[in-house]
Structure formats: C-alpha cells, structure tokens
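Take a look at the protein record below and tell me what you see:
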Amino acid sequence: MSSYTKAQKAAQRVHKERSQLQNRKSLGLLEKKKDYKLRARDYNVKKAKIKQLRQKALERNPDEFYYRMISSKFEDGVTKRREEDEPLTPAQKKLMDSQDIRYVTYKRNIETKKIEKMKSSLHLLDASTSSPMNKHTFFVESTNEAKDFDVAKRLDTHPSLLHRAFNRPKLIDLRKEQYTANNEEYQTQILERAKQERYDELVQRMKREKQLGVVGAKMQTKINLKDKGRKVLLQGETESSPAVYKWRYKRKR
C-alpha cells in the first residue's frame, strides 16, 4: 500500500510558492512559512532570555562579592578585565601579544646560529686596537730551528706588517709596487670600517638574542603557572628576568 501511495505522490503536481509581486520588489523577498518560523523562534528565545535576566536582576544581592571583581571593571555596560602593569618594554609586549613561545624559540635559535657564524667569520679583534687576541702557532723540527725562527721569512712579508691579522701583503706584491702608501692606507680604512660595521651588527644580534631569551622565559613561566600545585613567589618579574617561583615538592607514585 505504501508503494502505491508513493507512486501517487510522485505523479502529483509540484505546487510552487508565490514569489514577490513585481510592484513590491522594492520590499524584498516575500516571507515564506519557514522564514516566519525561524524569525518567531529567534524572537521567543530572546524574549525568554530577557525575562530570565530581569528576574535575576530583581533577585540580585547588593552585598554580593567575588574575587573576580578585583581584577575586572565595568565600562560602557561591559565587564572588562583590568590590565595588569607588567614590567615589560613595548617591544616585549608586542612580541608576546603576537607570537607564541614556539615562534620565540625558533627566532632565538636563528639569531644564535647567526651569532656563532659571525663570530667564526670575524677575527674577534678589538675594534679600537690593532693587536689580535688570537695566536698563530708555528711548528718546527728542532730547538735550534725554533731559536733561529724568523716569522717574517716564514710568512714571506715585511717585518713591519707582522702585527696585522689581515691585509698582510707578501714581498713579491710589495716588489711589484702594487701596494703604495696611499693605496694601502685607503684599503686599511675600508677594512676597518667594514670590520666595525660587522661588530656593530654582532652586538645588535646579541642584544636581540638576549631579549628573545627573556621573552621566552617569561612566556614559559606563565605556562608553568597554569599547572596545579602550591607555589611561592621568590622573586618578582623585571624587564630583564622572569618571575621566580618555588613549587612544593610532590611525591610521584
């Protein structure tokens, strides 16, 4: 019987709902029953919510207090959380608000690798002096050869250029007069300027790496504070260091 009913309904005419009249197009689409049901349901839900809030306001205790009131304020009809004054620089606040601890650790690792690469490429000389901090060791066969050892002869350069760690021309280049006094002084100035720029960049990268370390430590401290357990504040947070807490020892089963 059900199959016959289905066959009858399949042959029935499909009744389409009327659309908006041509002279009423400016009023928008013609509301159908399904649209009315959605609108009525939304209206009733809001009406019930308003009734519930009105009843809650009537039964409110004027002496009511809870600790969230200390850290929040009522502004423009909305309850907002009070902003705590954190001892952070503007750059640290911006970084902590925009990125997470994994990104900070990633950027710090990049800076650390760049610093190590720059240290290995630089001669680590003092920019204001010409005396190198590193040493150049020569190996000889015997003690007598060490006594008569001539560094200038071994390096094939003039004795007045031994104090240099770079830009030390050989004797064959000096004989060809490729290094005149003015040319040598100009090249030395260029190298000194380039070296100073590299050292300045190294100092900036080291400062940035230290700042990223501080931000990462502060973010890790905030993550650790979310864990359960009793803790005591030993040292407050500063611009250059995170807060230090001591957790109570808990025996693990």
The longest strand covers residues 231-235. Residues 126-130 have pLDDT under 50 and may be disordered. The first helix runs from residue 2 to 11.
